[in-house]
Amino acid sequence: MPLAPNGNISIHYETRGDGPPLLLLMGWQGNRTWWPESLLSRLTPHFRLILTDHRGTGRSGDNPGLYTLGTLARDAIAVLDTLGIERAHVLGVSMGGMVAQELALCYPERLRHLILMSTTARPGIIRGLSREQQKAWFSYLLQRDRTMQEFLLDLLFSRDTKANPTPAIEGFLERRNKEQTPKSTVLRQYLALQMFNSRRRLKRIKSPTLVITGSNDLIIAAHHAHDLQKRIPGAQLHEVHGGSHAMLATEAEELADVIVAFLHREKQPAP
Description:
40% helix; alpha/beta; 8 strands; globular; Rossmann fold; 8-stranded mixed sheet; single chain; 10 helices
């Protein structure tokens, strides 16, 4: 089992494919198994994918006590060090996008390009939602037959998942249940998220950056992506029409095309 030592714990990772290294960082509660095959299979021909388990998730070790997203960034650096990779493309989703920001800010020499998907510089769920999205939020809250997990699932996919199950939703549930994250880790990640705020630091990011958002994200609204794009020098923005927070599988083809085009275009010399 491939493990990267960081202090007295080890971080589990997997690799697949050949080509330039692309480090993938999953979001809150997630691990490497949450990445859908529909996206990975489209990226593998172009990159050497590096999928990690954040500390306390999947097969990675853990320490007691609180940590920050900077701690998770150091874990990611440990993986690159173990693999002997000096510089990598980095793609972070949701909380993973915040960890990716810490990597770009604290270890700029280790990044080639940065892709921030469905993420923010400062967590705040309702802030920036459209009137229609806020209405959907409150309608979900009023459905007393929903458990908290069902409620969160509805928000992830921006729909009533019980009334409208799809293969993408079923696939997500299957991946999520493979290696469930302990409640203690979920809480510590949540507290780390609440402490995160990179807004004043984003102007220091030097890596070529692409920000991706879904227009119908009910957890981190598109407003957050526009804010990131404005604050990061030279950042590009791509908005997936109708995309939800859990669009990795539902919009895999569009996302893969955008990611590959951005990284391949950035490799070309300027005219």
